[in-house]
Specification:
By secondary structure, this protein is α/β, with parallel strands linked by helices. The chain contains 12 helices and 15 strands. It folds into 4 domains: 77 residues, Chorismate Mutase Domain, subunit A (Up-down Bundle), CATH 1.20.59; 89 residues, 3-Layer(aba) Sandwich (D-Maltodextrin-Binding Protein, domain 2), CATH 3.40.190; 74 residues, D-Maltodextrin-Binding Protein, domain 2, CATH 3.40.190; 87 residues, 2-Layer Sandwich (Alpha-Beta Plaits), CATH 3.30.70.260. The longest helix has 42 residues.
Length: 362
């Protein structure tokens, strides 16, 4: 026993010594970051650089020989980069609130804890504040793997001039949150979309319990925290923020439920070699107009990963089309395809090029 304790003490001393070295190295790194920030200020270079972010994370994963899992290193570096942004220039990031929403979860997962987060009541307000440069960046949902496209986000792109500079994909795990045992719950609050995504679980586990739709999962958590026999369906972050217990976790019917979010900015991102480009266009109201544009994209070898339409609200039966294509707008084939496609469109806008997000670990 004494030998084991001596060995444990020796190992802990090694850890303490390594921690001292880590602190020294982190502060040396931070000093270089301060110099980078000063250079960016004098050169009018954007503080947030998605291309550099991707390059750093890719390099860290390539260097990793274990035993620490790469996802742990990425989480550590994510917070280091968040602290670096704080040293360079405190950034304001808008998201669809209130606190504890899945948009809040996406924002903190992307930018860490050192950023100034600003909740907004609707998606359009985020676009307005970013376009006016009152917020440096915005995080907005664009599509859910179960519920489909978020139309408010697409409509805001039609109205307001911002660029997509990054994307992030977040696994959506719904949890039953309450401060009482599950069998004592008499009412459950959440968004209608969340109830729909947990329909089977609710039907089998909470058949006799009343469900009450509210505007957001955060509002649901707020209400549940104030009522002794109430529950909410929401994220683990909402449970933490509103001091609720996770009574039952991962109650979503589809375990592969994910939401894709865009990071919007006044500027696009630089080329990384693994990018996407988002394009919005209107075609003439005539037979084959859309097919003509899609044929141009095919001729230039563009792989379209999504296509969605929205009414233009300008003329009856006129539609905006939104497509995501693999590649960067500075790539030769992408830029040539965009030029050629414009000849078939009444209007065509590049909404931004950005690093392709990795698929999340569900």
């Amino acid at each position: 026993m004494a030998e084991s304790e001596d060995r444990l003490a020796a190992l802990r001393r090694q850890i303490d010594e390594l921690d001292e070295q880590l602190v020294e190295l982190l502060n040396r790194r931070a000093q270089v970051v301060v110099e980078v920030g000063a250079l960016k200020r004098t050169s009018s270079i954007s503080y947030y650089a998605p291309d550099r972010e991707k390059a750093v994370l890719d390099r860290i994963m390539a260097l990793n020989k274990g035993p620490l899992p790469s996802k742990v290193l990425v989480a550590i570096w994510r917070e280091m980069m968040s602290g670096s942004l704080l040293l360079e220039k405190p950034l304001q990031v808008g998201y669809l609130g209130p606190e504890g929403s899945y948009s809040h979860l996406a924002a903190t997962g992307k930018f860490g804890v050192s950023v100034d987060y600003v909740p907004f009541p609707d998606i359009r307000s985020i676009f307005i504040e970013v376009s006016r440069r009152h917020c440096d960046l915005g995080v907005v949902p664009v599509e859910n793997s179960v519920g489909g496209t978020v139309i408010d986000t697409l409509d805001a792109f039609v109205e307001l001039q911002v660029k997509i500079c990054a994307e992030t994909i977040v696994p959506i795990h719904h949890n039953l949150l309450a401060n009482c045992p599950m069998e004592q719950v008499k009412i459950i609050y959440s968004k209608p979309e969340v109830f729909a995504q947990c329909r089977n679980w609710l039907a089998t586990q909470m058949r006799e319990v009343q469900t009450m739709p509210v505007a957001s999962s955060s509002r649901a958590a707020e209400l549940a925290a104030k009522q002794p026999e109430a529950a909410a369906i929401g994220s683990a972050l909402a449970a933490e923020l509103y001091d609720l217990k996770i009574v039952c976790e991962n109650i979503e019917d589809n375990p592969n439920n994910c939401t894709r979010f865009f990071v919007i900015s006044p500027e696009s991102a630089k080329r990384t070699g693994r990018d996407k480009t988002a394009i919005m266009f209107i075609t003439a109201d005539k037979p084959g107009a859309l097919a003509g544009v899609l044929e141009v994209f095919r001729q230039y070898g563009l792989n379209l990963t999504s296509i969605t339409s929205r009414p233009s609200r300008k003329q009856t039966w006129e539609y905006y089309f939104f497509v995501d294509a693999e590649g960067h707008q500075e790539d030769t084939n992408v830029s040539a395809a965009i030029r050629a496609a414009k000849e078939h469109c009444l209007q065509l806008l590049v909404l931004g090029s950005f690093p392709r997000a990795p698929e999340p670990l569900i």
